[in-house]
Design goal:
Blueprint lengths: L4 H50 L3 E5 L5 E4 L1 H7 L3 H4 L4 H4 L6 H10 L6 E10 L2 E13 L5 E10 L1 H9 L1
Amino acid sequence: RADDEIGILVESFNRMTDDLSESKRRLEAAYLDLQDKHTELEDRRRYIETVLEAITTGVVSLDPLGRLTTINGSAARMFGVNAAASVGRLVEEVFAGPDVRGVVALVQRTRRPKEGSAELELHLRRDGARVSLLASATAVRGPEDDYAGAVVVFDDLTELLKAQRIA
């Protein structure tokens, strides 16, 4: 202990090392918390991907520019496209055929501020058979209600319509 300049310097140094120690402890705690949250998010992502691949409903998601960010196996089979090759391509490129152009218009409708979602019935020919789909597009909104993309869900109505005709 000293009241001179050396004492003040030692006291400042001790205070600085205590502050550094406290900052290090807080950083380590924040790092552990971040690791836990990352693990939780990764588990959720894997769960959602598993569900999307297991369902028979086709699901396609798009970014704000209209590029596909995801397409599940059911949607790829419905439209006869390669899922991996479709990701990153524009919706106009993936859904370019005359019988699926309505999907592009459906996605464009979700971009309008007042339109949150839109539906369309599609009738396609796949492997010589007629396929009826109900396409439902929903806008994904950001935190400030800005357009952040869209999710399009395709339900196969073929068997249901066939049963209705038989009934």
